Amino acid sequence: MDETPSSMGARAAGLAGIRALFPLAMAVFPFGIVYGVLVARGDFPNAVGALASPVIYAGAAQIALVDLLDRDTPIAMAVGTALIINLRMMMYSAALAPAIARFGRGWRVAAPYAITDQLTVVSLLWFEKNPDPRDRRAFFVTGGLFFLGVWVLGTLIGIATGAQVPDGLQLGFAIPLTFLALLMPTLRGRPELTAALAAGLVVVLVAGLPYSLGVPVGAVVGVLAGMAAPR
Length: 231
Fold this sequence. Notes:
Layout: H1 10-40, H2 46-55, H3 59-70, H4 75-85, H5 88-100, H6 105-110, H7 117-129, H8 133-162, H9 174-183, H10 190-205, H11 214-228
Helix pairs in contact: 1-3, 1-7, 1-8, 2-8, 3-4, 4-11, 5-7, 7-8, 10-11
């Protein structure tokens, strides 16, 4: 591979991606185990829950989907809620588009599959100091695949051990805690704070709605409030 003077090489860039994602991957690993345990204790096949990790690849949406389906929520509403939770991926795609556009035609189609909250943040920060498109591609793809592997591994361990978890050990509390853990680092400005407060308030006020409709309603209100908040 020809390298420009500013290029560090694909191998070095890929290793940089793994190093940057490593602490975040260790944080998401128990999150994957929690999801796997919820799948194992749910009412649908373990194989389906395991396949969801590489297919859907969105922890918050997967946990919400499992939780809603276990409450006998209609499938359309459960899937709709998961889609609303994942609307933020559109913003991540827009932010990453200038860099991904230089990856090459095939990579432009495949690379966005790896987009997550964590990969987006570390990539955007790394891209500011490393303009070479080949280095960026190696960083993004290698780091993203490493992160995916950790998530899937956590899922499989959770599914394999879920049956041995005592019935008296309640895991439901882990769902809001894991969401809060993902949320807190992102509350850096007025729009983010406004969106979080508005969504949380609405979810509490409409908690009595059937089929857990308060979650998608709160999400929509939060997005609108964040967009309206002054920057």
